Amino acid sequence: MFPRSERQMPPPAAAADWSGVHQDILSRIFLSLACIGDRVRFSAVNQQWRGVALQNPPPLPWLLMPSTAGTSCHRIFGGFADPQPPLAGAVRGARFCGSSPGGWSVVVLHQWHGHALLNLRSGERVPLPDHVRVTLNGGRAPPNFNVIRCPIMVRAAAVSAPPPSAACVVAALTTGQTTMAFWRPGMDCWSPAPLGAPCDAQDLTYHDGCFWAVNPWEQLFCYKPEIAGADGALTVQHLVYQCCADQMTPPAPGEIVSRYLLPAASGEDLLMVKRFIDPARGGTRRFEVFRLEKQLGRTSWRLYKMEGQVLFVGRSCSKAFDTGRSGNPGYIYFLDDVYGGRPMSVLQQNEYPCTDMGGWSCSPDDEEIKRCLPWAHPSDSSPSIWYLH
């Protein structure tokens, strides 16, 4: 027999050095990642890769925390300790009523007046009226006596398109002589919604060419704006859906239920997020997500299996994103924007807490609320909001 010889194993391959990859190549790789989780892992490789990630942020919303002392803004992606994104049009003491893509927000600059569309990216400001034009007695009064101008107060608002666009329409949930109103550039007053506007609507969004509002009974109010004629007159078509509620869990004793509307990440479905809050047990406890289904003349809210999406929910600032992982449980980030009493109580707050906010996983194995958003002292001017830059 031949003597057994010792076989020498080849030395282990040296770990690849990724620190020398050109920045332009890294940027292309990063921008090609559709999954938010993959982008997070990309940013954790080393300092160079993290720098590339911060220079090419995904379109995730930023957390905006306004107050009279100053407005702070935090990236959800990249970490809260990173430098705050610049705000060109930040206004101290303003109350934020809604946010739309492109950096536009509807704000109230003073306590009871000074409504405006404000772009936090460019600093551009478009004044909005402080009054609504109301018709008395259904228009049966003598000429020149059937229309009055009444003060209006906006509590939540959504925008169909940026102000330079001819399709720009602002819809608002309001208090005063009307509970909902509409405006487009060129109008000197808000126009009230058609008869049957919701009295206690909790949220408002724009989806599929229409504005949608939901009340505490899951009734859905649909408003389709139309701009016609040489003068660009605004008319609004109105529908009310008496939605059947399938598979809805009733609130436990002492729980408050709040609702949010938003389009799904695909843009095809309209979603309603129900948030269950128990003040005696520390705040938000759980969520349910439903999809609007219209079939054979029947409209219903159907339980929605939330997979491969992350939702950011807030008053007229909610947004859904596709994570690129269709089989993974969805996730919901939420803000502290629910107050006791009717929905218009947002206008009666001396301060706006910033404590009941965080994240919640749609996985049945991990439904615990995560307090993962930055803590702040109560604001003296506005609830926190998702800034859709």
From TrEMBL:
Origin superkingdom: Eukaryota
Listed InterPro entries: KIB1-4_b-propeller
Residue ranges of every copy of the KIB1-4 beta-propeller domain listed in the record: 87-344
UniProt cross-references to Pfam families, sorted A to Z: Beta-prop_KIB1-4
Protein name: KIB1-4 beta-propeller domain-containing protein
Taxonomic source organism: Aegilops tauschii subsp. strangulata (Goatgrass)
